[in-house]
Amino acid sequence: MGGRPSSSLDKRQQQHLRGQVDTLLRNFLPCYREQLAASVLQQISRELGPREPAGCQLMRSKKLPRVREHRGPLTQLGGHPPRWQPIFCVLRGDGRLEWFSHREEYENGGHPLGSTTLTGYTVLTSQREYLHLLDTLCPVSSGEHTQEESDPLLEMPVNFPLFLQHPFRRHLCFSAATGEAQRAWRLALQGGIRLRGTVLQRSQAPAARAFLDAVRLYRQHQGHFGDDDVTLGSDAEVLTGVLMRKLLPALRAQTLPGLRGARRNRAWAWTELLDAVHAAVLAEASAGLRAFQPEKDELLAVLEKTIRPDVDQILRQRERLAGRLRVEVQRPLESCLHGKVDTQLSLVTQKLLSTMEAVLSAVQTLLAQGMDRLSRHLRGSSSGTQLRKEVYSFGEMPWDPELMQTCYREAERSQRRLRQLVVPFGFFGTRSLMFGAQDLAQQLMADAVATFLQLADQCLTTALDCTQAAQQLEKVRGRVLKELLEFEGDVLAVGSPALTVKGIYKDIVQGVLLQMIDGELKKALGANDMSCTLDGCSEAPWDQTGIDEKAEAQRGTRPGQPGSGTEVQPLCPLPPPRTFCS
C-alpha cells in the first residue's frame, strides 16, 4: 500500500529506543527485586503453614497447557504492492504461527516465509470491521482533503477473512477457502493468543508472581492506577507493552502528519512503523532481562537460605507492623469503601458469579457428554481398538478448540458485560478476566478428565462384564461431577501478600474489600450452598501462621473402590489394564 515509510529504524532512532528501555529497566528492576523477596516469603509460608482439608478432590492433570497444532492452506495479503498469495500456515503447539510458500516446503523442513508469536493479537473475521479499524488508526483531520486510491482489500472482497490485529505490530491478513476452514482457524488462533497471553498468570513460580506485582507497582509509580491487559504475555513482552504505551503519543504526533496517500494506506504504513519500533523495544527488553537472569537466580537462592530459617519471626514482625498500620487506615478506608464501593459491589459480584457459574455449567455439561459417550461405547462396542480411540479422544477434550468453544463462549459473553466496570472503576482488564475464565475452564476440564480416567482405570478389571464395567463408570461419573459442583464455591478465592510496607497497605485494603466481597458472595450463593467455604478469605491475605493455603491446596484423588470380585467371563472384550490412564 502507498504512504509506506521505511520499516527499518536508523541508528539515531535505535539509540533512542535503547535509552528508553535502559531507563525503564533501571526503574523497574528495583521493584522486581523487592517483590522477589515478597514472593519467596509467600512461597515458604505457604509450604510450612497449616493446610485446610481440601474440599475438592480432583487430581491435577499432568499435561501442560498447549494448543492443538493446526495447519492448512490459506491466502495472505502481503508484498509491495500487496496482493493475495497462496501460503501454507502452521499453528504450533506453543502458540507460534508460521507460514510457508507451500505444503511441501513445510513437510521437507524448510524455513518459513514468516512467523509470529500470537501474544496480544485479536482475530477479526469481518472485512468491514477490519476496514473500519484501519479508518480509526489514521482519522481524517477537519478540512483535510484525501484522494481516493485503489485498495486491494476493496477491489477483492474476501469471503472468509482472518485479520490478525495488534495495537503495536504489523497486521496479518489471511483468507480461508471455506466458512468451515475459517471457523477452525479462528478457534485455533484464539487458543494460541490466550496461551501466549496468560503464561505469567498460569505460572506458580515465585519469580512470575513477583514480576506481575512489580509491574503493578512500577506503573503506579508512573501514575497509572487503573487495571488493564498490559500484563498479558511473557516478561519481555509485558515490559515492551508498558513502554510502547508510553511512547505511542509521541510517535503519533511525530509520524502521522508526515504520512501521505489514502487513509487506509497510511494506516497500513503506520502499523509497519509500529512493528519496527515494537521489535526494537522487544529485543532490548529481552536482552536486559537475560542480563538480569543470573542476578535473579542468585537472589532467589539467597532469599531462600535467609528467609526459611527465620520465616516465623519475619511473619510475626510483619503482622505487628500490619496491626499498627491497620489502626491508622482502617476507619478512613472503610469510610471510603462504603462511599465508593458498596454501591457497586453487589453488581460486580453478580456479574462475576454469573460468568463463572455459566462457564462451570458448560464444563460440567461437556464433561458429562464425554463420559456418557464412553459408557455407550463400552456397553455396545466389541472392538477394543475402537474403545481405545474413544478413550484417547476423551483425554484430548480439554485441547479440542471446537468442543471447548461451548465453555469459552460463556467467558466471551462475559467480556461484554464486564465492560460496564470501566466507568465506575476504571477497569480495562476485561480481556485478562475472559482469558482467566477460559484458562480455568480448560484446566478444570483437564483435571476432571484426568480424574475420571484414573478412577476408571482403578475400578475396571477383567473380572467384570461389559454391563458391570459400565455400572462402575457410572459411579465414577457421578463422583467426578460431584467434585465439579464442590469446586464452584471456591473459584473466587483470592489473595496477594507482600513483604514491604506498600504491600502491607495493599493487604489491609484488600482484606477489608475481601470481607465485603465475602458477605456479598454468601448472600448471592447462600451460606448453606457453599461447599468449598470462602471463610478465611475475609482476613488480610497473611498473618503469622501463613494464610492463602486454600488457593494452593493440593488436590488429589481418593483411591477408587474395586468392582465385584466375582469371576465372570466378559461378554465383550474389555480394554487391557491402564487403557483409561491419561
UniProtKB/TrEMBL annotation:
All copies of domain PH, residue ranges: 68-196
Designated name of the protein: Niban apoptosis regulator 3
Ranges of Pro residues composition bias in the record: 572-582
Pfam families, sorted: Niban2 (PF26086), PH_Niban2 (PF26089)
Entry similarity comment: Belongs to the Niban family.
TM region(s), chain numbering: none
Start and end residues of each stretch annotated as Disordered: 551-582
